[in-house]
Structures are given as C-alpha cells and as structure tokens.
Amino acid sequence: MHYRRILSLALAFSLAPTLMLPVHAQDDNHYRGRKYKAPPETSHLEVLVLKGFNQKPIVNAAVVFRPILDGKEIGTLEVKTDPDGKATIDVIPKGSTVTLQVIADGFATHAEDFVLSDSRSIVVKMLRPQAQISAYEDNRGKVADRPAGVQEKVTPAKPAVSTPPQL
After folding, report:
1. Beta strand pairing status for 72-73 and 62-69?
2. Whether the model pTM is above 0.85
3. Is-contact 40 93, C-beta < 8 A?
4. What is the phi/psi pair of residue 121, to 5°?
5. Which pLDDT score is estimated for 48?
6. Domains recognised in the chain with CATH numbers
C-alpha cells in the first residue's frame, strides 16, 4: 500500500511540469509576433470635374492624389472620373496634406494642395489651354545661373547669309 502511494506521488510530480507548460506558454505569447497597430482613420473625398465654360462633367479625366502624412509620402493614387464626372476615394488618412492634380484631354492641367481633415467634396472647373509666351535673352559672356551639373544647350552658330543667283 505504501508502494502505491509512492508510485502515485512520483507520477504526480513527473506530470506536474507538463500540466503547467500550456499555462506558461500562454504567458510568453506577448513576446511573439508583431504588435497590432490600427490603421489610421481615413476621409471620404469626392472630386467633381466640370468643363469651365459650360459646367458639363468631364468623363474619364485622371484625378491624381499625392498624400503626405507626417512628412512622409504615402504614395500616388489615381482615379478616373465616372460618366457624372465624379472621382471618389476613401483611403487617404485624415490630417494628410494632399496634392490634387486633374488631367483631361483638351484641357489645361489643374493642381491644388489642401489639408484633408474631414470628408469633403471638391469641384474642379477645367479650362482650355491658354496662349503661352516665352522670352529668351542672349546669355553669352554671362555667368551661368544654373546649378552645377546641369548642362546648358549649345546652339550652333548661324549659317552665313547667301544671296540667290539672279536670273
């Protein structure tokens, strides 16, 4: 009888660490894996793209979003406008500084910057391209105003003027 008691105590002591193992393993889980970080809260942004001269929607215009959060560029996102001229996006975090660019065939590119705090709607009225004027000046003998490493275009000398033969 004494033998049975010693045998049962020996069995109990030998099984005790294995019974404690699952409890101990659960305590170690906080050291494993990555900590969960909730995604940032996002805003709903809707852009309506219209023709500036008749207020009709522009279909298939490219609406490009460049959000910056905490000084880091998140990435460039592009959405095309639907038949109603609307482009909608729901993945830009609140508090981002967003550069919005709208590109449509036959229209001048539109760009603007804003801080996205809450959901908002933006109306963009696209304009036809305007006339451009370029001014050039003779820079020979002047110090270059471009930074080092930027090549200036070398233009060939003008050809000599020749007179056509007279008949």
Report:
1. antiparallel
2. no
3. yes
4. -120, 140
5. 97
6. 42-126 (2.60.40.10)
